[in-house]
Amino acid sequence: MKFQSTRGGVSGLSFQDVVMSGYASDNGMYMPMEIPKLSEETLKSWANLSYKDIVKEISKLFIEDEIPAEKICELIDAGFETFKDPSSPIVTKTLAEDVKLLEMFHGKTLAFKDLSMCCTAQFINYFLDQSNSSATLLIATSGDTGSSALHAMSSIERVDIIVLLPKDRISQVQERQMTSVVSDNCHVIRADGTSDDTDVPLRKAFLDGELVKKHKLGTLNSVNWSRMMVQIAHHVYAYFEGKRTNPETDTVVFIPTGGLGNATAGCIAREMGLPIQMVCAVTNDALHRAVYNCDYSVTELTVSLASAMNLQVIYNFERILYLLSDMDTSLVKKIQEDYQERNKSTIPETLVNKLKEFMRVTKVTDEDIIETIKRCADENGGYVICPHTASALSAAYSLEALKDHNAVIYAAASPAKFSDALERAGVQWTGRNLAEELAAKEVRYTDWEASDDWLQKLLELLDTIHARRSAHSK
């Protein structure tokens, strides 16, 4: 299995190369040069596998012999040891009207990011051990990615991790989950800007080949191919969970959507042969414009209760274009460079029509989210969901043909992380008081103001880390 940039400037890379990387040197994102296919026989043989075993089977297809198959399984088992129930990282609930809801938030940081992050951390640590080397990982977060990355990597001495979070634009619990990770190899920056803004200096850093080589830069955002790979398993597992409701009916997954990591993994799963339909719930309409108007552009950001979805730069859409265009890297490069130069580009209608064959996009508002949290609690014995999950469930409620499909909702995060939204909805949360737990912890962070040169500050921090590592190695 070899990988290339979506823009064609880099190709023939190994899984090790891409799992240890960030953006490609041509500003693209890494994808397989060939997508493996799942036959009907293979899918039938996987129908009763656990989620964890599906992750193992998917990972073997893309890693192949770079890590022995037995070792791949060991690493994945080790990653999921941090979950509430390592044997069942995802818990399925059945809501009213036979809607299946997948609780994907039983990892360390109570968010679905933990599912792919724990495995990716194991793969990275494996390769670092093999080469006796170190790395620095750069992460821009819209809420949950940063905390998941920090908790996954904080104990790995070979890694320094830099997380940029959007100050005052995520829930207090989300921020505190990051700032309370006090470790010399963890560097948390509260940047005065949006999550789209925080991605800018990181992307610029990855364009500097000498900088990347000197500091061995990588990322744990969904830019990282390994994150994408593991998320393919979400859709395979969801497909089978849906089929258990009605084997003769199509499965439709409802995805809370921000940077399109999960949606892109779903597109890859479709390309592999998984007959799944997707509905992407969005609070910002960038994806909606792209799918229904061929308008790929950035407009004013809408700040919603679903903080991780507060994005206009849907960066994984580049990977979707790569798939839809049959890996036409020249076309992807043209579209993306136009988009980055002008914050606007036009997608060929032929590509959009292919996407609409299996994807719908529904925009939801804060009012929809609040109403759905209330409705879910009323109809399901007080069962409480987070704002992101509510956006997906709202999209399902709005689908007139809901009863004609096996509906599977992706529950992205624990409601314990979003007390403000629950208060607005007037529902009672009786689970962990995460805010109180985190309030008692020591915090460590640095503030970057909007007027600061964030790229320069990042370079200075990288030099400080490099000097510390050099001194330590002596």
N-to-C span: 38 Å
How much helical structure, as a percent, in the residues? 40-55%
CA radius of gyration is 21 Å
Beta-strand proportion: 15-25%
If helices are DSSP runs of H or I spanning 4 or more residues, what is the number of helices?
20
Write a brief caption for the model.
46% of the residues lie in helices and 15% in strands.
Notable traits:
474 residues; alpha/beta; 6-stranded mixed β-sheet; 5-stranded parallel β-sheet; 20 helices; 46% helix
Protein described:
With 474 residues, this protein is α/β, with parallel strands linked by helices. The protein is built from 20 helices and 15 strands. The protein has helices at 15-19, 40-46, 51-63, 69-80, 113-131, 145-153, 172-179, 195-206, 209-215, 225-243, 261-272, 286-293, 317-324, 329-342, 349-356, 366-379, 387-398, 419-425, 434-439, 454-473; strands at residues 3-5, 30-32, 91-95, 99-103, 135-140, 159-166, 186-191, 217-219, 251-256, 276-282, 295-297, 344-346, 359-363, 406-411, 446-448. The strands form four sheets. Strands 3-4-14-9-10-13 form a six-stranded mixed sheet.
